[in-house]
Amino acid sequence: MTEAPSIRRRLIGSALRRYREDLGYDLAVAARVLECDRSKISRIETGQRGIRPRELRELLAEYGADAATQQALAAIARGMSGRGWRNGYDPVLTSAYAEFLEIEKAACAIFTYAPARIPRLLQTPDYARALIGADPSIPGQAGSALAAVERARQQAALHERRTALTVVIGEAALRQQVSSPQVTSGQLAYLAEISTSCPNVCIRILPFAAGEHASSGAGFSVLQFSAVPSFGLVHIDGPGDGVCTDTLEAVAACTTAFRDMQRFSLTAEESAARLGNRSRVREA
Asked: Which tens digit of pLDDT belongs to each residue from 248-282?
């Protein structure tokens, strides 16, 4: 059985294919750049094989990719090297989620829609442990380690790399009690605090009054890697680790949906006030 291409290889391969096709080049042109046969280029573009850093630089230079895109693709291609904060956590991560975390390191911006749960990048340890403990697919002994993974991920993404994070959270997520009133109020208080103290984080609340048309569907995240809107990765929430796709259609559709939901959401200032009020109500 042929192994399915990894997320990382698919993302790099499809980006290379788009650049080549936008220039009107056929496989033979790319093959001449790398002095290889066309089948190798085809396998790279479909994610069936990886690409060496030097080969990636040569193709991107030939295609005229801007510096930001070249740097982002190079970072993604490095893959599992320099895992940093992930050291020691690999035993509790699935291979797919570990790879997603590696790709996330190269993102310059993240857009997240969370209709019913606080997104992982903004969860408190208590809230994260409660949700992990309620998941029957996760062994009990792995729960604390997975919560630690998410905390370390937050620190790296939001405070060290200072990745721009924009989140639209459905009002249902604020009203759903997780574990206990204390855990829920603590989570809401943390959201209120980080929304005003962390300038790279923007939290918007999508109220019930916005209507079903604005808030239907599963939660998702869009990772952007450069100023090129079509170059991105979509993660759709679902059982297990969810699914990832980098198709132009998925990136465009989710980006458009996210922009539409922002239009119906409270402003960042109104959202911070709502979060503060909700946390006080929970405490009472």
From this structure: 899 999 999 999 999 999 999 999 999 987 766 55
Q: Give one DSSP letter per residue of the chain, joined into a string.
A: -PPPPPHHHHHHHHHHHHHHHHTT--HHHHHHHHTS-HHHHHHHHTTSS---HHHHHHHHHHHT--HHHHHHHHHHHHTTS--GGGTTTGGGS-HHHHHHHHHHTT-SEEEEEESSS--GGG--HHHHHHHHHT-TTS-HHHHHHHHHHHHHHHIIIIIIS--EEEEEEEHHHHHS--S-HHHHHHHHHHHHHHHHH-TTEEEEEE-GGG-HHHH-S--EEEEE-SS-TTSEEEEE--STT-EEE--HHHHHHHHHHHHHHHHHSPPHHHHHHHHHHHHHHHH-
Q: Is the dihedral of CA 228, 24, 75, 148 positive or negative?
A: positive
Same domain, 182 and 253: yes
| The residue count for the chain | 284
Residue 1's pLDDT is what?
42
Q: What tens digit of pLDDT does each residue of 97-114 get?
A: 888 888 998 899 999 999
Q: Judge if pTM exceeds 0.85.
A: yes
The string of pLDDT tens digits covering residues 8-53 is: 899 999 999 999 999 999 999 999 999 999 999 999 999 999 999 9
Domain region containing 31: 7-78
Q: Are 34 and 40 in contact (CB under 8 A)?
A: yes
Q: Give yes or no for a contact between 275 and 205, defined as CB atoms under 8 angstroms apart.
A: yes
Residue 218 lies in a domain: yes
- Which residue among 43, 78, 113 closes a domain? 78
Cα 152 to chain center, whole Å?
Answer: 15
